[in-house]
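Hello Y.,

Per our agreement to keep a running log of every chain we model this quarter, I'm adding this entry. I've kept the format consistent with earlier entries: sequence first, then predicted structure.
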Amino acid sequence: MLVLPSTRRGIRAGRSVRRSVALGAALALALSLSACGDDKPKASAAETQAQADDLVDLLAIPADTDLGGDLTWKMGAALTLSGPSAANGESMKNAIDLAVQQVKAAGGPTIDVHTLDIKGPDPVAAKQAAEELAAAGVPAKITSMGDGLGAMLENTAKDQILSLDGVGGAQVFTQGVDYFFGTREVAPSDAVPGALEWLKQTDPEATTVGLVGVDLGPFNDPIKADITAKIDASGLQFNGLWETVAPTSQDYASVISKIKENQPDMLFVAFGGGAPGAFAAQAKAAGLDSVLMGIEFTQEAVKASKGVLDSDGFHFAMDYFDADHPANPLAELFVDSYERAYGEKPDFYAANAYEEVLMFWDLLRRVVADGGDPNDSAALKAALEADPTFASVYGPGEGDGPGTLTIDLKTHGVASRPMGVYEYKDGAVSTLATFDVGAAGFTLN
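Predicted structure for the entry above:
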């Protein structure tokens, strides 16, 4: 259960009691990390301890809470660590390592992370990762890409591994899958209505919409039905353009030739990682005139565009994590500690993975408080279902507290999520409109 800042008076009183124990843990952790190579966060014991103290304070954890410090808890991580999305997976791994270090220093459990590469994602690699994590006995995992573009879902439910996906969210084909929960907007479904409303209000002459994206095999049809229904509901027209490529491909010549024959006023560019930038560069070279509307944005896309995103700009609609302007104190702590550890600001992949480690720690504390076994995935899931609200690095908090994330227990996705239409150009992101799921509260900036 998320405890709000009004309970902090007792927390600060108890901090000195826990501090000596937690500092000892931080010193031991710092010594162990010094022998692990350069892939771990670079922070002194004192820095880590200060971050951990702030984390406990921001989460408003009561002073008498069992934080799980006597436990070693297994957690899986199914990440895209190779292929076109490798940078995304590396961001997530960095954030997981950072959160694990802070949780331990705060007096929490030693989290033993079993990290596996699902590649592009590749269905075979994703399926194999699911089986290996089950064999390792992890009760929970941080996962990605709609649980490996659907390839892991059967194992997620069958092996009862509580899974949080902050990359693809609860896609149409994942909704209701047992033990699977999306912790971000459904990309692009949840943001589509807001993006369409932005187009209508800023370009009344625009009427047609199409999409280019990743080939998801048997999941293409339900996703297409969902998106086209949203286009129809907006009063705009789907022009029939729905072109897809393999998840690992960044050669768009064949699809661009088809788009040129049937250009919509706005083209959803449903790619992740660096792919939107590569597509934008090739689209410009081919003379496409459609407004490109991405479903995510990262610096990898900027690099892949070879200057096109900076010169021409790029629109995108999503739950963007603005590391330059953190929305709440928990986000500030995350951005500051991530930048100190890795020398760069975090993207939304990192933000979501960090948030998910904290969600698992929250669930673990709840299970321990109820006398249960935190290695029992059913107990963890029951705790989530009993109270699906968690601390978040997104959105304004109450007072000086974190934002909140609430899971919709019917869809297994987020009940709400701050989103918007944004434009990247000349090294900066500007906000063009803000809204929530389904374009609720749409505001044009």
